[in-house]
Amino acid sequence: LALAMPSPFRVVAKRGLLHVPFFGWALWLGGFIFVDRSDREKAIRSLDRAVRIIRRGMSVVVFAEGTRSPDGRLLPFKKGGFVLALQAGVAIVPVAIRGGREVLPKGGLRIRPGTIDVIFGAPVTTSSYTFETRDALIAAVRERIAAELHREPEPR
Known about the structure:
Blueprint: E1 9-14, H1 23-29, E2 33-35, H2 40-55, E3 59-61, H3 80-88, E4 95-98, H4 100-103, E5 117-120, H5 134-150
Parallel strand pairs: 1-2, 1-3
Antiparallel strand pairs: 4-5
Helix pairs in contact: 2-3
């Protein structure tokens, strides 16, 4: 599998993943941005760090649901990634991931054979949104991702 990204990127992840042997070390070495969701002040500092990373020209990947859905349905989105985009003044690229649950169900340890589709949508500019209208921004991005998840996969 080869995946080419147009620019360097970092991923936002929950701090608890740091404590997973080997996996946590790999994430740390990869420059992941860890967020402590149990400590609001630390979470804000992590998002501030992410804003600085974006302003240096690097993309930041945020999983808006904050976790994987056990049944494949789209969960409510967390606000942090949207606040981050508004603070940094950058567009949001909606990404839909289809097939991941079949390959590795939530809580599962055994990876099954299968296909995972990663669909990149058109960027959603944030310039017409404010912190007060971020719920509308969240709804716009969520709608685009949901539409991709419900669309029939293209034949292979």
